[in-house]
Amino acid sequence: MIKAVIIDDIEQAHVTLKKDLEVYAKDVTVIGEANGVVEGAKLLKSIQPDILFLDIQMQDGSGFDLLDILKDISFKIIFITASDAHAIKAFRYAAIDYLMKPVDPDELMEALKKYRQEKPNENDKYKLLNDSLKNHQKPHERLALHTQDKIHIVNIQDIIRCESSVNYTEFYFTNGKKLLVTKTLKDFEDLLSEQNFYRVHQSHLVNTRFIKEFVKTDGGYLLMNDGTNVPVSTRKRPEVMKMLEEL
Asked: Could you tell me the residue ranges of all domains in the chain?
């Protein structure tokens, strides 16, 4: 049985989430509830859940104030939020599960599915998310990447390119390091499009800062600063040439 705690300052949120868990997740039992930071901190010092459903903004502080009090986090956190687009993007950069209010049962089930597949121990991700939310005007500088055995927090501008590998994505870095990440290239295309990354081929996403030249022969390809050749699809070729002229 999966033990859960709910911390939210809206009573109806507790009622709705508990009802959804009873109906859609019969292996989850709620062992405790709190309506704010102070009460939640006291509760979590006395009981140890497997999952914490945590509201971000509450009357007596934020969910991050609560995490700062706890210091060591040994359980999975699924954030509950009614936040804006900036906050949602921050969640995606940090690769942290969140549920929008009102909670959709299908999204709840998907978050619980991820919990069953992944090990918690995500302190670095929470710090990354908190930093991103505090710096609303500052571009995202780091990204959380899930591999099979670890969560890596990387600097975005150290990424040279990304290459699709079926349902995975291979990342190539300036230091020669490679990471095989458990998400599709499409996920990162959406996330990194505002960070000077450009999808030049069905299987390739490149950081335009590391393009050395565009070679028009052999079907057309990009020569990157690390010496690799990245093919440009026929369909994308006019767009890529225009993009390079505007750099």
From this structure: 2-134, 142-246
What contacts 24+ positions apart, CB below 8 Å, involve 167-175? 171/145, 172/226, 172/228, 174/210, 174/226
Q: What type of residue sits at position 118? A: E
pLDDT by residue, tens only, the chain of 247 residues: 999 999 999 999 999 999 999 999 999 999 999 999 999 999 999 999 999 999 988 999 888 889 888 877 788 889 888 776 667 877 888 877 888 888 899 999 988 988 887 655 566 777 778 777 766 656 688 898 988 888 888 999 999 999 999 889 999 999 999 999 988 999 899 889 888 999 999 999 999 999 999 998 888 899 999 999 999 999 999 998 888 888 7
Distance CA 25, CA 55 (A): 20
pTM equals 0.70
CATH code of domain 142-246: 2.40.50.1020
CATH of 2-134, one of 2.60.40.640, 3.40.50.620, 3.30.110.30, 3.40.50.2300: 3.40.50.2300
CA gap 247, 243 in Å, rounded: 6
